[in-house]
């Protein structure tokens, strides 16, 4: 069962019809401090029309992976592996061929819409330019007509007027819709959206996501959606890839990831989320510590210092990415033990401390609040003037003697 | 003067702060040699609420609705231009900065950005101890007290001589919290304290804030745009739109029985991290953008985006929305809501 099945999409590599096939992608940045190994063996296969969500902590390599696919990394980046777009290898492709792929083949939407928009040109000009770059014989009239259609489609009101305005006359949400319209302009096979709604208010985010769905219906593009918002992924993605320290640690259908996670990091991520749809107050289960530096990463599982399930061999052997179910894979020596997990609090603490330094080996260097009986949290003092002060009895008490602040372990959130 | 503030239940001696009709306008000046006052950004436009001891009041709303301005007005950092803020028996709005000083100890603030808000050249011990020195409270026990404070916020007291850059984002936020607690405040204004953090790290800081509140009997004004976090941590929640509170209620009441169309749209827009539930939901999509606070719509400020106004009301009802500012009142739903046609809809069921 621990065979290295090809779980990237559950199909046999030989028969795959993937639009995008990324295999063992590695990206290294030489810096004055040493080599930053930012992407360490990313593989995924994107089927036509599917939405792949990529989630993971800040710095886990989500953006660098996508920039590599787009050929947008600087000259200093050392990229190895393979990136095939409709069977054609993109790595090592010349600039001219690559700019042909960008836009018409693969389009990109960034968090900041002004990355893609030019402040000195009218919106209509920028749309027409995108259209005519790829279809040079498109007439100006046709380009304008199509631009108006696209602006309509992404829900820009009064498109006829708006098309002759400049980006600064648009709000953030409207600019992002224009960027989506430009991305759609040539019906690309793949749209890579890197945190497309992160800078937007939640009501505007809902509008933009709706537009992205509409864009997909219209173009049948496959979408790679990078976001730190597990709610957005839950609503949009067919499959989800969880990244940690530069590599995928879990990949599966959206249901597998949310209801049957098999990698402790995924479990921890889900258990950290407060839920707006669950009434009773539940204690969260944070992941202590912080992600490792990608400069001189030590051997072993990179999650070891933060993992409540880690054992000695985790420190020496980095787990392979293995199949844990149909079209579901994870990189953990002990993912089998998570099979019947119902609750993140079964493995993670409901702690409130974070005492290690990022450079330390583990986050548990000292945990001054952790001793003492469970549930002995004192009643908060209320009425007198000193009530709101730190009780004097606590001042000068040795750290270890103070009462335990954790709630009982069974209060963490579940998955369903 | 409205009497909204008095309507909140609970005995009065339990109040630590009473905010009544507070306004904060920023003047807009004309360009040119002689600058004229040509208008105002009405960042906060008449808000009233109470804060009780040991209570967490969540303040939510979208970017620019006036949350941070409210927070700064409560601390008298940017004094209100009208209205009254009574803190523990003292009227703050008329105090000089000097007279405010002894009260500063009691109301502290924690900012969003854990990178920008700590002086990179100072070791953590000095950052946490600085306020004690400024307020002339430094004594021979202070060193030990800093250790206790660091332990209290879940950091290792041994790390007090390290510099901010040696800590992770979540840990820096803990340092900011330790600094705010150094003077033993009664009220902590937390302005987006976890918004810049990754979720796995944010959870630890949320747990910490809950523990500190229970343990020290603090009251929090918790400012955030993330309603999941706000539901998790707050006892009561006020929803702001364009400088006004549009709905305020106990947390479970607000999330289970929202009555303002804006609150309802906000709740419906939050993506749920649960694929089956998320896909089964119906969304109330708002159209358009938030209007400028320099020139807010007449009557109800939400009317330009209100789905109820657009789809459910007849012309004479709309006229009321256009002409009459809806007061923040209990309209028979058991909590205060500022909508002429308020109606409870369970969005998250
Ligand atoms: N040009 C570069 N030189 C050196 N290191 C780099 C460079 N670009 C990125 N990195 C490093 O590569 C790692 C991965 O970065 P990346 O931007 O992909 O993270 P991410 O997952 O997109 O994070 P976020 O959620 O914050 O956007 C980080 O540690 C980053 O510091
Ligand atoms: N010093 C100032 N001068 C002029 N206008 C200001 C000033 N400070 C804030 N504003 C305006 O007041 C309004 C409210 O701003 P505020 O920062 O309170 O919003 P917020 O709710 O905290 O938003 P965010 O979620 O983006 O932090 C905004 O329109 C802002 O542009
Ligand atoms: S391999 Fe070991 S350290 Fe890594 S996630 Fe699995 S149990 Fe934890
Ligand atoms: S008063 Fe009218 S416009 Fe305002 S929220 Fe209520 S229904 Fe909508
Ligand atoms: Mg990124
Ligand atoms: Mg703010």
What does this structure look like?
The complex is a heterodimer of chains A (416) and B (349). Chain A folds into three domains: 2-254, P-loop containing nucleotide triphosphate hydrolases (Rossmann fold, 3-Layer(aba) Sandwich); 260-312 and 338-377, no CATH class; 380-416, no CATH class. In chain A, 24% of the residues lie in helices and 18% in strands. Chain A has ten helices and twelve strands. In chain A, strands 6-7-8-3-9-10-12-11 form an eight-stranded mixed sheet, sandwiched between helices. A four-stranded antiparallel sheet of chain A has the order 2-1-4-5, with helices on one face. In chain A, helix 6 (172-184) runs parallel beside helix 7 (202-219). Chain B is of the alpha/beta class and 349 residues long. Chain B has two domains: 15-28 and 40-260, P-loop containing nucleotide triphosphate hydrolases (Rossmann fold); 261-349, no CATH class. Chain B has 13 helices and twelve strands. In chain B, the strands form two sheets. An eight-stranded mixed sheet of chain B has the order 6-7-8-3-9-10-12-11, with helices on both faces. A four-stranded antiparallel sheet of chain B has the order 2-1-4-5. In chain B, helix 4 runs parallel beside helix 6 (169-181) and helix 5 (142-152) crosses helix 6 (169-181). The longest helix of chain B has 18 residues, at 199-216. Chain B is globular. Chain B starts with a helix and ends in a 12-residue tail after the last strand. The chains are: A alpha/beta (416), B alpha/beta (349). Chains A and B meet through helix 7, helix 8, helix 9 and helix 10 of A and helix 5, helix 6, helix 7, helix 8 and helix 9 of B. The structure holds adenosine-5'-triphosphate (2 copies), iron/sulfur cluster (SF4) (2 copies) and magnesium ion (2 copies). Residues 29, 31, 36, 38, 56, 58-64, 228, 294 of chain A line the site of one adenosine-5'-triphosphate.
